[in-house]
Amino acid sequence: VNNFMDLDIILLVIAAILQIGAVILAFKLIKITKTTRGWMLISIALVLMGLRRFHYVTDNLQWDLWFFSDLFFEYYLAIIISVLMVIGIYFLSDIFREKARFESVLLNSVWTGIWSVDANNKFTYFNKAMTKIFGLSNEAIGINIFASLPEQTKENKTLIKNYFNQAKDSLEITHYELLPINTLNGTLGYFSGVLVPMLDDNGKYNGMICTVNDVTEHITDQAAIKESEKQFRDAFEEALIGMALVSPDGRYLKVNKALCDMLDYTESEMLAINFQTITHPDDLDTDRKHLKLMLEGTKQTSRKEKRYITKGGGIIWVGLYISTARDTDGKLLHFIEQIENITDSKRSEEERKLNESRMKTLLELNTMTQATCTEITRYVMGKGVELTKSKYGFVGLMNKDKSVFIIHAWSRDVMDDCSISDKPIEYPIDQAGIWAEVVRQNRPIIVNNYLSPNPAKKGIPEGHVQLTRFIGIPVFDNDRTVAVAAMANKDEDYNNFDIYQISLLLSGMWHHIKNMKAVNELNRLNDELEGRVIERTDMLSESKQALLNLVDDLNLTKNNLRSANERLLELDRLKSMFIASTSHELRTPLNSIIGFSSILLEEWAGELNPEQKEQLGLIHTAGEQLLALVNDIIDISKIEAGKLEINIREFRLKEVIDEAVSTVKNDINKKGLDLEVEVEDTTILSDRHRLLQCLLNLLSNAVKFTDKGMITIYAKTINSIVNISVTDTGMGIMPDDIPKLFAQFVRIESSLTAKTQGTGLGLYLTKKLTVDILEGTVGVTSEYGTGSTFTMNIPVKLEKHDTEAEFK
Amino acid sequence: MKRVLVVEDNVNNMKLITFVLKKHGYEPIEAFSGDEGVEKAIAERPDIILMDIQLPDISGIEATERIRMMDDMQDIPIIAITSYAMSGDREKILNVGCNGYFEKPIDPVTIMGDIEKIIHGR
């Protein structure tokens, strides 16, 4: 038994150790795989094993329990434990398989090449990536790596070997970067990776595990980035526009060449200053405000125009564009500034403004008509200082011989700052300082570095204002310098534009002064002229008055004449009235004379002896003559007084002519004359009585002055005019007498005059009646000694009208 | 014997006319004014009236008008004797009812023939 016991104990111990080893292994596996199923099963197995051991150790205990029976322990428990162990290990091995598969998939699915070699540099493992990159096949396992890799250049091989040996010799993990290796398809790739040497239990080198990352593309990317960075840098550096990165507190972090050139600083100088340093003091406040807004984030970008002061102290205008670069939290990293030099455009704008200002000044100058010479020069001087942005200025005029310069205007500052004891207003040119050079050289002079030596300077008297910059401009009139303006101490250099401005201003001033002189002269002449004009006007007024008096006289005379005329007309009318009425009174006694003489001649009152009869006949004839005369006078008077009534009616022309003919028929017969009547039988509208009267007159005249031959009466209507002519074969009328024929009381002297009777009013009355009453004409043609033709032309239709009106 | 009323203001003319009338066997009735002429015309009922137009009181025209206003005085021939200056009144003279007119101066030799011509010519 003892032997058995001994053996039994030994076996037990061995089993226990094995089982403890299995347990430890199980724990390890469980820990690695983190599986619970295997863990539970193994745990149960372990508890059972513990119980079994416990049983063995205490088998002398007699427990009345089936559970603790030997049988159970010996058989069933052992079986249970074995089943449990088998199942548990199954699970665990399953897990191992999965893990191996997972690792294989993992290793083969990455882009990184993974491989291992043994101590003899022969491949022991490589993943799929290696196959892809270097074309390794499964045959390569166990083959030297250099024999397996694609053909390498000598340099590459050396590089690879260097790294390899480094790791091998040092036995430390070795990183390699950008190792050039030829790949499967022969192209050069760049690779990075790690070489991990493996040691055996003795600490001796036992191969290594390595990784290979293809960084070819990465490198290309990097190159592209570098290129792009370079481009960006170039764009920044080479930009014609000034560019800068500025820190939130205003320091220049990065500046480009254009900006440096613009401001005349070097890059390093720029990086040492901040923007406040170079900003014009007048623009600082605005800048600070903008800065604040942008720092607060109220404004993201800013655009403005401002002034910088260059290293040399010059002022430049820039257009500034500011944007911000912020981190992801919105914190301001820096400003990005783009700066454009706009000094030129600014200057031209300013010049434009100055031009405008000058134009305005010149215009205003023209309105200063009442100003004195001094006031004008002072005004121009002030404007000149303003236009050139100078501090001091003066304007002076030359005297005629160009030897003395008379300062008419000077800026207050000059005299305030200038404490020269005696301040002469007249400067002899040959004693004057630099500004006199303007006169001496007859050209504008600019001195922008007054403080440095200048041959033209004559030396400034003690106490004179300190000059820094100076400009002097002459004004010419017919090539003679007539005035000089000088300005001084502008903040910037004087330039041609200043010359231009001042020259124009001055020439405007000079013209104005000249004009004023001319205007004064003109005014004087005007006054003189005005005096003369007044004098002449007075004279003219007198003449005019005289003329007016004359006109008054004339008017008076005219009025007198008019009233005289009216009186005359009235008298004439009265005369006609008088004649008419007295004629009537004359007729009444004539009626008795003619009437009673007729009766006596008829011997109704008794027989008369021949002598009585002849004498009574003479009375009767004289009475009839007197009556005819009175009748004619009455008619003429009535016509002249406008009292003759017109009696218009229709009648036959022939009838009137026959009546007239019948009246003179006896006389024609008595004289033995022939009579021819050729009359158109037409009806006319006229005054029958007056026509008859006219015809009787003409006919009786014809008979009266014709002793032999014939009398012809002819009447015809032509164009609404009745033409009646009476032709005789009488003595005729001398041409000289024809014009007198129709006048009053005219009797043509002839041999017949004595024999014939007549009032001398017959033709006058005929004409009056024909013209005034019948509205026609009467005329005569005659050949002395042969005969005469009297012709009447009267309208066929006489229009009725108020004849009285014509005579009133 | 026919009776003739002569209205005429002028004595000489009146004498001349009445002489001629008597010579030719008429009985003249004299009236020296218009009013008298009208009165005598009504009172005497002459066979003929010779009426001077220019009268001192009323004109011969008015006198004729008055005479003609009476119904039984319509048929008496009235012959006006006008002055030469009154020739414009002829129409008026005929319009108021005169049967004809003579212009002065009257011709004593032909007047009675002319009067008869007027009276019988109507």
Give a structural overview.
The complex is a heterodimer of chains A (808) and B (122). Chain A is α+β, with helices and mostly antiparallel strands and 808 residues long. Chain A has 21 helices and 23 strands. In chain A, helix 16 runs antiparallel to helix 17 and helix 17 packs parallel to helix 20. The longest helix of chain A has 106 residues. The radius of gyration of chain A is 79 Å and the shape is elongated. Chain B has five helices and five strands. A five-stranded parallel β-sheet of chain B has the order 2-1-3-4-5, sandwiched between helices. Chain B is globular and about 30 Å long. The mean pLDDT of chain B is 87. Chains A and B meet through helix 16 and helix 17 of A and helix 1 of B.
Number of H/I helices of chain B = 5
Order of helices and strands of chain B: EHEHEHEHEH
Strand order of the largest sheet of chain B: 2-1-3-4-5
Counted beta strands of chain B: 5
Beta-strand content estimate of chain A: 15-25%
Question: In this structure, how is the largest beta sheet of chain A organized?
Answer: 6 strands, antiparallel
Q: Ranges of chain B with pLDDT <50 over ≥5 residues?
A: none
What descriptors fit this protein?
heterodimer; A: 808 residues; alpha+beta; 23 strands; B: 122 residues; alpha/beta; 5-stranded parallel sheet; 42% helix
How would you sum up this structure in a few lines?
The complex is a heterodimer of chains A (808) and B (122). Chain A is 52% helix and 21% strand.
Ordered list of secondary-structure elements with their pairings:
The complex is a heterodimer of chains A (808) and B (122).
Chain A: H1 2-33, H2 36-57, H3 70-109, E1 113-117, E2 123-126, H4 128-134, H5 145-148, H6 154-170, E3 174-182, E4 188-199, E5 205-214, H7 216-238, E6 242-246, E7 252-255, H8 257-263, H9 267-272, H10 275-278, H11 281-296, E8 301-309, E9 315-326, E10 332-341, H12 343-367, H13 373-388, E11 392-398, E12 404-410, H14 412-417, E13 426-428, H15 434-441, E14 445-447, E15 470-477, E16 480-488, H16 496-601, H17 610-641, E17 648-652, H18 653-671, E18 674-679, E19 683-687, H19 688-704, E20 710-718, E21 721-728, H20 762-773, E22 777-783, E23 787-795, H21 803-807
Parallel strand pairs in A: 18-20
Antiparallel strand pairs in A: 1-2, 1-5, 3-4, 4-5, 6-7, 6-10, 8-9, 9-10, 11-12, 11-16, 12-13, 14-15, 15-16, 17-19, 20-21, 21-23, 22-23
Chain B: E1 3-7, H1 11-23, E2 27-31, H2 34-44, E3 48-52, H3 60-69, E4 78-82, H4 90-95, E5 100-103, H5 111-121
Parallel strand pairs in B: 1-2, 1-3, 3-4, 4-5
Helix pairs in contact in B: 2-3
